[in-house]
Known about the structure:
It holds the Pfam family MlaD. The protein is an alpha+beta fold and 198 residues long. It is built from five helices and five strands. Among the domains are: 73 residues, no CATH class; 31 residues, no CATH class. A three-stranded mixed sheet has the order 4-3-5, with no helix packed on it. A two-stranded antiparallel ribbon has the order 1-2.
Amino acid sequence: MIDDVVVGSVGPMRVKDWHADVEISVKRDVVVPANAVASVGQTSLLGSMHLELNPPLGQPGIGRLQPGATIPLNRSSTYPSTEQTLSSLSIVVNGGGLGQIGEIVHNFSAALSGRESAVRDLINRLDTFVGTLDQQRDNIVASIQALNRLSTTFAGQRDALTRALRKVPPALDVLIKERPDSRPHWINFASSATPPPD
């Protein structure tokens, strides 16, 4: 369906990577927008299931979806089924939802009682923190991208780094063995590098 008008039919359906993969065919003269969103729903309470192909909510249709094209999973959704809607309504009507909401509000109010100024201060600090993060967003993204480039460089030099790290323990052993002999030299160096007092 496009704009609540039947324009084609559903063909073979398969499970692919734990998701439904559905082939559809539409009439030749029908234009399916390239930015179409696929939604599965029911025409009425007792109606049959259908597949809607419409532009994203609040956006105009752009271009034309070519034959054989795929609408990705992130552009598909499912309307709640009749069973899901009635089940949710049953929970609310039978007190499973409203009573719990009232209890949550009461307990939350009791927990905050007498602490309003502390909570207000916390909210103000969180607001400042989030605002600072928002202002630094470009710097944060640039830092993450730089870390990504650095990790890519490290990954490209993995063998050289492994060889270098394998040579560090023997080099440390040599330095530890030479420490007693080199200590007087370091002391002399430190005293000669220190400027005389005025």
